[in-house]
Write the C-alpha cells for this entry.
Amino acid sequence: MVELKVVELFAGVGGFRVGLERASARYKVVWSNQWEPARKKQEASNVYVARFGMEGHSNEDISTVEADAIPDHDVLVGGFPCQDYSVARSLNQAHGLAGKKGVLWWQIHRILKEKENKPGYLILENVDRLLQSPAKQRGRDFAVMLASLSDLGYAVEWRVINAADYGMPQRRRRIFFLGFHRSTPLGRALHDKPEMAERWMLEDGIFAEAFPTAGTMPIFREFTLEGDLAELTDHFNTGPTSGTTPFANSGLMVQRHVRTMPSTPAFYGPRTTLGHILQPEEEVPEDFFLDEGVLARWDYMKGSKKEMRKSKEGFAYHYAEGAITFPDALDKPSRTIITAEGGAAPSRFKHVVQTPTGRLRRLTPVELERLNMFPDNHTAGLAPARRAFLMGNALVTGIVERVGALLAARIKN
C-alpha cells in the first residue's frame, strides 16, 4: 500500500487530519502548521499536539517558514483564514497585499511555487462567500486564486457543500476545492482531454461521486481567465454585471478555462439530526442548564424584533429581525456553530435544546465536537468557551473523509 504524504496548513485542531485518517490508512501527515497571531496562548496548536504528537508540527508564523523546510508531500490541505480576500497587485508582488488575513492565501501560493516537487493534489476549504468577493467585482478573488493555481500547473474543481444536505448533523455551508497537478495521472487527463470536463463534473469527478446532485439538465457557463494576476485583479468582472458573480456553486477550471454550473444536492441515505448527537441529560454539567431568572432575556434574543435603536454615534434607526426557533429542533440538523457558541450569557445564535424532563440547556463541548464529526473530547483540557470557539472555527470532518476516501481510491501509486 503506497503511502500518501500530507501537509496540513492552517491546521486548527486537525480537522483535515481527522477526516483523512478516517478515510484511508494511506494518508500520513508528515508536516503541519498552526499559528494564531492574535493570541499568546496557542490553544489550537496545543490541542493538535496533544492529539497527534509534536513530530512534524510547526507552531510558527507560516510566512517565516521557508518552503524547503517543508517536507515533500503528495497532498496539501488547509482551510485558510477567510476574513480578507486581498489579491496580488502584480505578478511579481504576490506578498505585497493589503490586509493581514488575505496574505495567507499567498502563503499557500508561495509554498506551491517554491517547491520543486509540487504536491500532486490539493484539498482546500473556505467560506462560500469567497465566490462573491469583493462586492464591487463579484468573483474576482476566486478568479485570481484559480488563475494562480492554473499558472502553477493545477486543474481545479470546486463545490459548495452544505454538510447537512448529505446526512451530516450540522447545516454548515463551505466551498471545497480540489487541485490536480498535471504531473499526476488525474491532472494529466484533465489537462490533455478537455472533452472529459463536462462528464467529470456530472458523473466521473470526485465531487460528483462523493456528493451526488439532482439529474436535471445542467446549465453550463464557460469563460477564460485572461491576463496576469494584476490584470485580473483590476479588470475581472468590472462591467455592468459586476454585482453578480459568474461562478456557480460547482465548477472546473483547466488551463484557465472555467466551466461552472449550479448543482442541487441529491442524497437519499441516512441522516443525523441534532437530537442524535446529544449526551444523556444526567451527563450534562449543571452550569449548562439555563437559569430561570434569565429565560426572558433568552426569549427576547431569540424572538422577532421591530424596534428603534441608536448607533454609537447617536443616530436612531429602525431595526428588525425574524425569530429563531427556540429551543432548537431536535429532529433536524443543527444550525451552523459559530465561534461565540460558548458561555452562559443569553445569545441569539447559541444553540439551546430541551431535555426529556423539560429543562433548557446549552450544548456541551462534546456535542459541539460531534456536530463537526470529531472524536469525543478532541478539545479536552481547555475551558468550555475556548472549546466552543475552536469548534466554531473547525470544519465538518465527514466531508473531508468522503473526499479523501475517493481520492485515495483514484490514486494508484
Remarks:
- The mean pLDDT is 92.
- The longest helix spans residues 397-410.
- The first strand starts at residue 4 and ends at 9.
- The chain has two domains: 4-267+396-410, 279-329+338-371.
